[in-house]
Amino acid sequence: MKLKVYADRMSQPSRAVLIFCKVNGIDFQEVKVDISKRQQLSPEYKEINPMGQVPTIVDGRFKLFESHAILIYLACVFPGVPDHWYPADLFRRARINSVLDWHHSNLRRGCFTYVINMVLGPALGLRLDPQAAAEAEKLLSSSLSKIESVWLKGNGKFLLGGLQPSIADLSLVCEIMQLEVLDDKDRVRILAPHKKVQQWIENTKIATSPYFDEVHNVLFKAKARYQEQRLKSWSSSGTSLKSKM
Amino acid sequence: MKLKVYADRMSQPSRAVLIFCKVNGIDFQEVKVDISKRQQLSPEYKEINPMGQVPTIVDGRFKLFESHAILIYLACVFPGVPDHWYPADLFRRARINSVLDWHHSNLRRGCFTYVINMVLGPALGLRLDPQAAAEAEKLLSSSLSKIESVWLKGNGKFLLGGLQPSIADLSLVCEIMQLEVLDDKDRVRILAPHKKVQQWIENTKIATSPYFDEVHNVLFKAKARYQEQRLKSWSSSGTSLKSKM
């Protein structure tokens, strides 16, 4: 039975798992779980993942959720996945685990909370909260600084000085890509100070081409939609300003 | 060269690593990093862990931080650690990874944020924030419910139906133990609805005895200190109330 990946490409951990499968030639079936329609909370889906989150994989009778656990499982179980994704060497593996653990309470928390409170909240039934966004931006920016000064220290193209990407590169870069839905001025303000991070994102895109862009396409379309909405809202506020003058 | 564990026993991930080492007879040297004195932010410590957090291990020339990564490393590298802590079986291992990943954004975030905003904040130079505590309590309580209905489903003594503990049991139980510093009425209100969780905490204590209590002793002492402060503050507010009557 083919591996099933339950995912929504608007979710960054979903994208990481999908790109990993495609890059490594893993034969799988993608099953769309539409978060904007709350499908992850349906009783049918909760039979697969009682936490009501994406992604989840079903491999035969084995169900697994949490994207890092999934990436590690796929790297270890599927034959032919190159060693650099999750090295057998225990020291290199331990350092990748360290990045992945750090990610949860730092980059992920900052980035996710910022984007939800700046743009994506209403699509998920949440209100935008500028104060929460401001707090999250601090954590996001300090996390990007840490990535640059700690994980990207040295001359490697990837985290931990790697010449090829690991699952940590994929997970963290997919998280940062979520910033695409922001207004450009916000995204540029946040990323501009971090030149090494920008180069690393580019390196990860290239190393996972063409699947990186293919899987992110839905995000690029969302970016265009949000940008259009912003232009309309500015233009209508301009009109109302004029009409008051 | 002996393994060094840089830790503060008031930190729950530090305690998990220390208990793991002791239970498994790993020969190590504990190096106290006093968080209340900001020692984790000193330039010397940042040479070891640039993120300025505890715990960190130094094993020969190898430095590692993030407690889950450390526990996995120790379980894989040190001979004689029983398999149940982090099974070689890829399916069981994957499910333990899933619990550990879930922990970060759920139980840990809820519990840590609650305790910091209810009690421990001032010791770390932060102010108490009742609104943040109230928000955190929701996440904490829903996480305890999920542990009970998902991870403790069935009749196992430990998470995932285990008959013996894994590193996930140790990590999550050490987190919940942080609630000891709360006023008893708050701790009881939070834990009372979760009978299976209470039994599982007890099972984990017994399975790691006598080291569990030994390593938690500093927390029990802190609990007594905070309780004394509360009594004093109530008694003086009672006096001032009386004097106003």
Automatic annotation (TrEMBL), chains A, B:
Record bears the keyword Transcription: no
Catalytic activity, reaction form: RX + glutathione = an S-substituted glutathione + a halide anion + H(+)
Q: Spell out the molecular function terms from Gene Ontology.
A: glutathione transferase activity
Q: Which residue range or ranges hold the GST C-terminal domain?
A: 89-227
Q: Which Pfam families match?
A: GST_C_2, GST_N
Q: Where is the signal peptide?
A: none
Q: What is its EC number?
A: 2.5.1.18
Instruction: List the Gene3D superfamilies hit by this protein, alphabetically.
Output: 1.20.1050.10, Glutaredoxin
Q: Which family does it belong to?
A: Belongs to the GST superfamily. Theta family.
Protein name per its UniProtKB record: glutathione transferase
Instruction: Tell me which species this is from.
Output: Ficus carica
